Amino acid sequence: MDSSTSPIPQIPVPHVARGWAIAGGLAMMLLGFFALTYEIVTTAAVATFIGCVLMFGCAFQFIKVFTIGGWKSHLWYAIVAIAYGVAGYVFIAHPFKAAVAFTLFLGWAIMIGGIFRCFLAFRMRHHRGAGWILFSSAISILLGGLIISQWPATGFYILGLFLGVELIFAGVGWLGLGLASKNA
What whole-number distance in Å separates Cα of residue 27 and Cα of residue 19? Predict the structure, then answer.
């Protein structure tokens, strides 16, 4: 079956600006290495950013209070707005305390997600590739356990560590894409 008769529509591949992809990839990698070098500063910046996002969420929830009908809806959106506002304030005013609390939540979320994937792997044990799900679940359980076992100390650096690693891997992806693409 050729591509002209395929029932799946073909999505055009966007043009990659080679220079911008390489420059962006290198910049992201440099930012990632900066984040890993200064994990504590990066963790405070991430916590403050989360606080700002929560404050915007608070504002939008309060806008909903005045734009929808029904007192139950008003009450619900007001409660959510207050919760967003309080959480946002805590993240901005006390970024390290918020990061420590958030890290505990994150560690448990990673571990519980790994436990659920472990059950999924055993339910899918007859499928090819189920071993990869089991492997990823073991890594998640181990990572979550490490975060929790070293808590509260992990709260001071884990957000910066995760951001740094993410930036480096995203930068490597963009750099690889740029280097593999043809000159325009």
Answer: 12
Q: Number of C-alpha atoms within 13 angstroms, CB side, residue 97?
A: 8
Contacts by residues 152-155 (CB-CB < 8 Å, ≥ 24 positions apart):
152/100, 152/103, 152/104, 154/103, 154/107, 155/43, 155/96, 155/99, 155/100, 155/101, 155/102, 155/103, 155/104
pTM attached to this predicted model: 0.69
pLDDT at 117: 87
Number of domains in the chain: 1
DSSP state of 70: S
pLDDT < 50 positions in the chain: none
Residue with the two structure tokens 């950013």: 49
Q: What is the pLDDT of residue 170?
A: 86
HSE-CB at 134 with a 13 A cutoff on CA atoms is 11
Q: Which domain holds residue 139?
A: 18-180
**120: in domain:** yes
The answer to the question of residue 1 being in a domain is no
